[in-house]
Amino acid sequence: MGYIPEKTLEDVEFPQVLGQIAEHAQTFLGKQAVLNIRPIESIKDRNTQLRMVSEILLGTQNKNEIPPYKSKNLKDVITLLRIENSVLTPQQFNSIVFNNNTANNLLRYIKKNNVLFPYLNQLGSHIKIKEEVSSIIFKQIDPFYKIRDNASSTLSQLRKKLTHLKIQMNRSFQESLNNALNKGYLDEIKETVHGDKRVLAVKAQFRKKILGATLGSSRNGRIVYVEPIENANLQLEYQNLKFEEKQEETQILADLTNTIRPYCSLFSAQHSYLIKIDLLVACSKYADDISGVLPQISPKPVFELYNAYHPLLLISNRKQHLTTVAQNINVNDRSRIIVISGPNAGGKSITLKTVGLLQIMIQSGLLVPVDRNSLCGNFNQIITDIGDNQSIENHLSTYSYRLKNMRTLLKKADDQTLFLIDEFGTGSDPDLGGALAEAILEKIYLSNSYGIITTHYTNLKLMAHKLDHMVNANMLFNTRSLSPLFKLEIGDAGSSFTFEVAEKIGIPYTIINKAKKKISKDKLAFDSSIAKLQKEKTQVMKTKQALEKKEILSLKESKNLEELNQKLSKKLKAFEILYQEKLKFVNLGEKFNKVIHRYEKQKNKKLILTDLLHLLDTEVAKKAKRVSGNSKVQNKKIIELLLKDDLKKRAVKKSKKKTQTQPTKSMVSIKVGDVVRIFDGESTGTVEKIVKDKAFVNYGQFITQVDIIRLELANGNK
Fold this sequence. Notes:
Helices cover 55% and strands 14% of the residues. By secondary structure, the chain is of the alpha/beta class.
């Protein structure tokens, strides 16, 4: 049997967590079930519940919420149903139908989605779906808690008679009312209801004029209430029929109760199942509130918490838009006991509560706000002493109460125990209390138990430094502002910063200096060394953070430069290709300039044309290598056209220069078939086509397009 007393649950504020979870429950019994959550001794059952809560949470996050699960409280109904000859009411039958339908819908949905909810499916695997239960009840009782007319033939006949009799009563009463009204016997109100009976409001002086029973009168006696004798007889018959109807309804309910009595165990199972579902869904919703997860689970007494938060503090700070500091803390075989030191109000107690609360939550089947790679184990015993535990009932001081807890811990501590003790050994003379605390801690250490303590005692810090499986830790402190950072750091003891804080608050330096003289030099030097080390460590941490930021920025800038370099390389490559192409055209242009220059000066035009064609063939061959997808002939034609166009443009430029110095115009009409030449030129060709002011001249080896105004007829043409 595990030992986790209620005092431990109160110390770590577990009831407050349950109160927040209970707000998510939809039923009263669900809320009660949540408030009664306690650590689950069976590791198998605990792990099953953790996985069920995790399944519901994951389903909700992935838009696979389970169907509505709100239920009716059948606790009293089931108790009554187990009693022989008991009879249920229509309302109770309807509650059974409601729960039966709700449970069946849940079971069908979860079974259908067994891949998403394997553990939830196991939870309801023992409950059979019984559709006939709802059908049996629904055939005899409608949703408005009324027994149906066709529930039995006798009931059907009785209700028909009652309906017919009611019509008769209304008709008879109306006749009596009209008769008395015509004779002036009635008051202005004419009629009313007295004692569930319809009566005439008769003026007192005409009382004897109406045959019937007087049932009462007004306060002033001016009006008497008379039930007509015809209606009285019909009313008597109606009451007899109503009595028979009631008896028949009771018999129907009794028979129906006997019919469904064999399903009592089913109703009980459904009832428990729906309460459990309400509890699990409430736990999953709370897990969503605190970003709770299912960490790695171990059966061993160990925990390794990363980015762990105190749930209550997390929710409280979130409402106030404050930042909550996460803690990293490990207790395992290498470091079984952690001794946390540091200044007051630095977060030591909240760290203890965080560890204790998260461990109890996990052992109670609740998800916790930590990283998924955290590890949570199992402790058979969790013993705590956190806060001011002065016992008024037992007339014990804080120190006496803590010594009593120490006695319990010494008696029960073993290798499956987790202890969390705040301000270990305080409450007595510092020297004497410190010595006793050290002796107790040595005994606990030898029991191989696990735990965390907070202390200001120097001897306990030294003890943690010497022993193999005990480590020091401290709550980080801003040494400049002397304000807590609420961050736990494992490895070194922390200074209490007693004199530094006192000096900041304004205590005169003379008093502080006098106090220092009263302390042993070794103790003062030790505390000063710790304080100095902590200051240096804080500075190193700041430097480290600054370097990490610079490294991140440097990596980011390096990445940006690399991307920019790649873009520039692409652009330079494109420019290089473009430059080479342009250079080729420039070189080609220079070659053609030389050919044209030779063409104008040499008399042997045929030789020049041969050189030109050779140049064309060379350029076509080069172009064919670069351009894919075109035949050699097509490439040649393309190059020829490009070169001819270039030649034409250059010729036009030269012609323009000549026309500026010697403007001439052909006075002869040029037509297709004429042999022509360009002004001052020697080569002749035949005009093959004329388009507007352009002539296409065939020179034998090639055809070119020339402005007509630049042409003249060759010798021998008119």
